[in-house]
Specification:
The protein is an alpha+beta fold. The chain is built from 6 helices and 14 strands. Helix 3 packs antiparallel against helix 5. The longest helix has 15 residues. The C terminus is likely disordered.
Length: 322
Amino acid sequence: MFYSIRHVTRFRYSAPVRESVMELRMQPRSEGPQSLRSFQISTNPRAQLYAYTDYLGNAVYHFNVLRAHEELRIESQAVVEITPLPAPPAHADGLEWGRYNSYNLTDEQYDLLEPSTFAQITPALHAFIAAHKLEKPAGDPLTALKHLSRVIHDAFNYLPGVTDAQSPIDVALKAGSGVCQDFAHIMIAVARSWGIPARYVSGYLYHRGSRQERSADNATHAWLEAFLPSLGWVGIDPTNDVLASERHIRAAVGRDYADVPPTRGTFKGVAESELAISVAVEPTAAPVRHEDFLRVARPMSAPHPTPSMPEHIYHQQQQQQQ
């Protein structure tokens, strides 16, 4: 399946600002069943883009707008191909808990067992765990994670505006409401407390017209991936209480949101800022490669070797013409 993604971010300022420095993590990852076919970023005002890959394997772009401006617009466009994989089994075997050891876990996975900026056990989360009898995982790790996803889905209302990008999980726990970022952080913290490495995924979700997910269809999306030694990374979307599928498009992974915000930056000036975001994800046709446009208009007639053109040179020229 091919998807086109258009992600527009607009910052407006109440007075002219200068030296807007911005870092972007919008480029979909290309690994496993997901392949990035095309990607481009444009900015207004125009800026020179630089790129690097962070230690988590995410593509990071950064730029600096030096001249004064009252609006900054960033637009990314991508085409991604996702090949469906067989669904994971209904449950893992009874020996899976015993496989969480130094033979099966890497340093990166051990790092994803530790508390992080937004995913940590707080007194409010302790109370939530006790209220829903989540202290001891039920069954094998996969069954336990599915149960946890359902508990979070049923316990919280999806309600934008209750929390913001910098809200700790206690805000959502107290309100009983939040958005995908909050639900992912809560589930990551509980999974890590069980000894399951878990990481945050920032990306996009294609919403099918025949099915209504709780998450918004004009925004970025977030879910998590939990590591099961016998299955690898398994994506789980507690906002919609589903396993991640070919409709989930991964852009970046990290310990939590603090590692992978789509935009992060600062500016010089005395002004208030307004942020507006638009996201569109649509199925699309397979991109046409440049060579697919070409057709032979006139076949080449191969020259014959002559005394002035030795045969070894003739073969070299034929290779260059092909």
